[in-house]
């Protein structure tokens, strides 16, 4: 079952190792010229995943400790029987299989989209994502800074059936208040000074996909009524459509966008804006 290579010296063995993939190296320790210790050391440095089996007619505790530190998995003392050699070779290949399995597991960490982990709490979050990823329900995410809230939002979108549609992320705290309404809902030509052409807002851009509103607690109070109307229309009519009116537009637009709101836990606690966040939470 095995293809073997024979070398009469360390130099020849090194040449074989350089030109051929070897799974198991069997070497004596006492050899003329360069001894087996040097071969084991070379193999450990250059081929750490290769299994190594040492045989010797001059056993000693010092030699045993030295080769074990070099990664040798089996150590046979002469004379040995054929069955003892077979058992040592089988043990070496068994260790090789375990290493390969461990590497495979390490190379493939438990990942769900960009979320990596396997703890009980991570699994609970993933279960929630699985329940909501394929519908247009409005979603509210809260938590402290650095806990991966946006990763959750992106996983909801990209792990679901709407992943080919747009995912529009908006940092509401980073847009000046006087521009936020126009950016969210769009505007018609002439709506304000400098509006030379009509422009679609983030709601229209996310049509068919997901509109992710970060720092929702920073939205000015006068825009909350518009946002709540979008949510109420979906909730009361059991419809994925949103009701959006662009600035200076006479008719309503009904984009099919899912809303995900995000609010930082420390913002809610330290700045007294809990009610601003909870409004969205209570209506979904």
UniProtKB/TrEMBL annotation:
Keywords on record: ATP-binding, Nucleotide-binding
Domain Response regulatory, chain residue ranges per copy: 1-93
Pfam families associated with the record: Response_reg, Sigma54_activat
Domain Sigma-54 factor interaction: 115-246
MF annotations from Gene Ontology: ATP binding
An example Gene Ontology biological process: regulation of DNA-templated transcription
SMART domains to which the protein is assigned, alphabetical: AAA (SM00382)
Gene3D superfamilies (alphabetical): 3.40.50.2300, P-loop containing nucleotide triphosphate hydrolases
PANTHER family: TRANSCRIPTIONAL REGULATORY PROTEIN (PTHR32071)
Protein name: Response regulatory domain-containing protein
């Amino acid at each position: 079952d095995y293809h073997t290579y024979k070398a009469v010296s360390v130099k020849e063995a090194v040449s074989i190792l350089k030109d051929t993939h070897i799974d198991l190296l069997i070497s004596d320790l006492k050899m003329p010229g360069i001894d087996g210790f040097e071969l084991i050391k070379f193999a450990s440095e250059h081929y750490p995943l290769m299994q190594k089996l040492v045989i010797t007619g001059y056993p000693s505790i010092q030699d045993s400790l030295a080769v074990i530190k070099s990664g040798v998995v089996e150590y046979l003392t002469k004379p040995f029987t054929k069955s003892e050699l077979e058992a040592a070779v089988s043990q070496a290949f068994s260790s090789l299989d375990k290493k390969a399995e461990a590497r495979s597991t390490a190379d493939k960490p438990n990942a769900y989209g960009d979320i990596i982990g396997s703890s009980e709490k991570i699994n609970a979050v993933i279960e929630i994502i699985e329940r909501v990823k394929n519908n247009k329900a409005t979603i509210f995410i809260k938590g402290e800074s650095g806990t991966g809230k946006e990763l959750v939002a992106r996983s909801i979108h990209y792990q679901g059936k709407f992943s080919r549609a747009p995912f529009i992320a908006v940092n509401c705290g980073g847009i000046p208040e006087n521009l936020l309404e126009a950016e969210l809902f769009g505007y018609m030509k002439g709506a304000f000074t400098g509006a030379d052409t009509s422009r679609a807002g983030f709601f229209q851009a996310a049509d068919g996909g997901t509109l992710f509103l970060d720092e929702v607690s920073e939205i000015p109070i006068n825009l909350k009524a518009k946002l709540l109307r979008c949510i109420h229309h979906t909730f009361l009519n059991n419809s994925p459509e949103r009701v959006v009116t662009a600035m200076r537009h006479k008719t309503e637009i009904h984009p099919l966008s899912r809303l995900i709101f995000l609010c930082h836990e420390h913002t809610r606690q330290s700045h007294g804006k809990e009610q601003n966040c909870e409004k969205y939470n209570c209506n979904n």
